[in-house]
Amino acid sequence: MKKTLKITVALVAVLAGLTSCNNSEKSKGRSGALASNVAEKVYVAPGEHDSHYAFISGGYSGNLTVYGLPSGRMFKEIPVFSQFPTNGYGYSEETKPMLETSFGFVPWDDSHHPDISQTNGKLDGRWIFINGNNTPRIARISLTTFETEEIIEVPNSAGNHSSSFITENTEYVVAGTRFSVPVPQRDMPIKDYKGNFKGALTFIAVDPEHGHMDIKFQILMPGFNYDLSHPGRGKSHGWFFFTTYNTEEASTLLEVNASQNDKDFIAAINWKKIEAYVNNGGGKMMPAEYTHNLHDEATHTATSTMKKEVRVVDPAEIPGAIYLLPTPKSPHGCDVDPSGEYIVGNGKLSANLTVHSFTKMLDAIEKKKFDGDAYGIPILRFEDVLAGSVEQPGLGPLHTEFDGKGNAYTTFFISSEVVKWKLGTWEVLDRKPTYYSVGHLTIPGGNSREPFGKYMFAMNKITKDRYLPTGPEMEHSAQLYDISGDKMELLLDFPTHGEPHYAAAIPAEIIKNNSKKIYRLAENKHPRKATIDADTKVVRDGKNVHVYMTTIRSHFSPDNIEGVKVGDKVFFHVTNLEQDFDVPHGFAMIGANNAELLISPGQTRTLTWEPKKVGVWPFYCTDFCSALHQEMQGYVRVSPADSNIELSWSLGD
Ligand code: K7E
Ligand code: CUA
């Protein structure tokens, strides 16, 4: 026991030491991206389009960024869990409800794993989902508007990390807790963790037509850490797999105490069985508070609803639905190949990469070959479920993706490389260095039944000497590889924004023709819209002043407003009358304690301003929209609180 501890401490120390990488020598070799013909492979001529979209998670930015492949050009940052002054998301009255939670307004999160909706196991390009890790939430973003449409909070969860992964017909988006916690939350000693804390795995049903999310059930699992997950597909459709670590159930010094067991588990969940159980009234409703926030495209307005209960299922109630597959050692990524047969457990502290067989798992279950249980959940024998292992492929495996041609690609954080190996024979076919300390990797569609195996990109944690230095902190770096040949070929480095954990990528043609160009004014149902100049007005309601305003190149209507007083709360409801693609207007008010608005064509957005000082105060358009953009401005006269100046507004004489 003492010896194990020593070895573990030594191993952890070695791993920690190795993470400070020293790969700059490798980068000096004239190969890969340094070969002269490689630039052509990533060159997208001016005016031409990239062949793929990549949606890269923002990590601690809380957002999602949109890139083109192969150029590595960033097109957009989509605000999801974080306020975004660039367009007013989370500041405008219409979007503030998106960031409501049971803890109140939470204007930030840590977003990790985007996943694109699927139909029959293929990417359908309708929506992309992403998890908020810190204050557990799942968001749905439309891939026609590229805006966040919906966020649902996940109760009984903490560190929403084994999320957000999609079943092959987008029946569910699945979210699992990394940190186990008391369920329900209560005041109790931390040292009583073991046996008392629970890990909630949450199945959120997705409405097939509109994508609306609703928690169908939560499974209250033993108090392990549920790190990553993936759905079964093809033959294993109906199952979901979660890696666990800290099966020791330690609550302190996890770097040592959660590295004791030789094997942790992959939890295999037969969700179809649990779904049937729940449809027959199984499980029980438990009081819980969580928000459901929905942005309505017609009213351009989000609402936040507090939900009061959630259906929970105790694994003991439904024998035969959950099994544990022993997996060495503190596995991180949990990846399922396109056929659904192989389940890869990327054991961070393991010398070999473990691959389980779905067929063997079913067989062992059928023959009831169990090796004890954990809190009543049967444990299968490692040898009975093992398909094979890749022997000593590298150090510190994290994640695996697939090219659809029988090959798998695994990232190794410590040895800073991507290793290509063959499913079934487990032989290593190729390895390429990454710069440096790679986390996730992405192949377009690599997380579906039909990957598009031309490109792979690695997302690296340490950038160091790859770009011009920008002070102590560098943006993270992605590296694009051509994987169409036998050997991987490094094509390009490009910077990413925030911390890119995972990314989802898809051929551009699946999405680009559906991309919305304008919001139709005729369809605008915002209750305070103004769609023609005659609708514009200023209305006083006690201390609240509502300005119904329009914008069109190149003026606001109205642009002169008088009769506002100190102590009023002014709501600028600004409708952009433009019906041309890519002509937003901005709206900014001096001294406003929030941000600007950036209003898309046909959209209505509201900025709140509480004038504090007497004077004549300007507002202006922030987006250079026409040759007369600089003329796009106006004034609000603010009088003392006791003034009797009448409310008036005008445009022109
Ligand atoms: Cu960065 Cu998927 Cu959150 Cu691994 S996780 S690296
Ligand atoms: Cu509108 Cu500048």
Mean pLDDT value: 94
CATH top level of the domain at 521-650 is Mainly Beta
Give the overall silhouette: globular
- CATH homologous superfamily designation of the domain at 521-650: Cupredoxins -  blue copper proteins
Number-wise, the strands total: 45
> How much of the polypeptide forms β-strand, as a percent range?
35-45%
Subcellular location: Cell envelope
EC number: 1.7.2.4
GO molecular function: copper ion binding; nitrous-oxide reductase activity
Main location: other
In short:
With 653 residues, the protein is mainly beta. Among the domains are: 2-31; 521-650, Cupredoxins -  blue copper proteins (Immunoglobulin-like, Sandwich), CATH 2.60.40.
Describe this structure as you would to a colleague.
The protein is mainly β. Among the domains are: 2-31; 521-650, Cupredoxins -  blue copper proteins (Immunoglobulin-like). A hairpin with a 2-residue loop joins strand 4 and strand 5. Residues 1-29 have low confidence and may be disordered. Bound molecules: sulfanyl-(tricuprio-$l^{4}-sulfanyl)copper and dinuclear copper ion (CUA). Dinuclear copper ion is lined by residues 551, 585, 621, 623-625, 629, 632.
